[in-house]
């Protein structure tokens, strides 16, 4: 050590060495100071109130008040909405083939974690930050939080958690149509686009401060006859968005190997576990009691909460029955799968109008949804689009119907929820209750905007990911799909049982012989 010190001191006597040390040290210090400066500037910009004014100061003081009961109500319903992830996992895994069960479960878990970080970093800011009619630009990384969000009297982070659960739902809906052939790295890329950009930006248009669809001022409000686009809990913002992203993904991916459609003499591949699929569907129904009633954001509107809960139940019941009776004449069988997708379609449809329709209206909405879903499945079969779970008929088509139904069946008796209860100074009235076509026009514009914009952007994103060479592309390799995503992508099957017991490894029954012959000998026809 003394020798090393003497050598270093000797080098300091050299002029060139001192100059080099000074340059390196100075450069490092300059870099550190620059980084600290950028961090300070970033923090100052996002923590400062945008456009400070007396009005902003008044709003800030209003945001200082937090209602304990409203906050607890929103948190409890946020937990219910989050629990819907368990329902999605059961539904999608049960309706898929056994050889892609682990993949489905992993996608749901990973997408939830990814959505949480993205929504914290940018998604919430894009959706609920102050900005303009197209996008928010406040609250990045949740900087600049007030005690309560806006005039809700709900603690800011409780409101954030509730909205994160909604964003997570939209992302999970998407994966249902892409089961069985999506590479996991490709899933990461498109999920980033959905959770970070597509969902929150469209959500800002309808729900965000100043969003052009939900704003009571501006050209849209005037052109639509003095009404605004309304979507109480997300038939469009969550479900139509998720459903049409799912459709775009299924189109770009193409069908699974061996998938033979009804028009070609085939049909949907059978689920591998309807028990877990049906249980997952009922868990989703249970979670919807957070999804819809929780969207009041207020426990003070107790009559509204009761009405929403009843309407949600009746629409699901009507849809489940209608779907079963509609399909029965074809196969002369009582179809469990269609009953589950039927009541889910009813839940999706009632999500938009649940606050503004009567119980009778909810039954009508659900009954129509129960027909829309199987017709949507038929349309996919005709178009040769492979949607294993039925994501587009259930969430896309039923979401469109539910959004439009508000313009038809809103009774005109109910106003809008506020932090302190219902505000009946503004009521919502549909065509069948003497309200004319104004609200229906607004709903049609909002739904059409969602379909065109979301589907167009999705096709661009999916095609871009598909064009990537290597393992980050959208669709898994042919060999990987034939082997099964559980083994190929995750290295383990879902079911470990002894040979001679349990289920066989799931291979498409109508897969061409040339394809089945390429399956690894240890997989084809074996028990796992």
Short description:
With 528 residues, this protein is mainly alpha-helical. The protein has helices at residues 2-12, 15-47, 54-62, 68-95, 101-128, 156-175, 184-207, 219-223, 235-253, 274-291, 302-331, 336-350, 359-383, 391-409, 438-466, 478-483, 485-490, 513-516; strands at 416-418, 421-423. The termini are far apart.
Task: Give the beta-strand count.
Answer: 2
The helix tally amounts to 18
Ends distance: 63 Å
Largest sheet: 2 strands, antiparallel
Instruction: Write down the overall mean pLDDT.
Output: 87
Give the SSE string. HHHHHHHHHHHHHHEEHHHH
Sheet with the most strands: spatial strand order: 1-2
Shape label: globular
> What structural class should be given to the helix and strand makeup?
mainly alpha
Low-confidence stretches: 42-56, 499-528
**Rounded Rg:** 27 Å
Question: How much of the polypeptide forms β-strand, as a percent range?
Answer: under 5%
The helix content, as a percent range, equals 55-70%
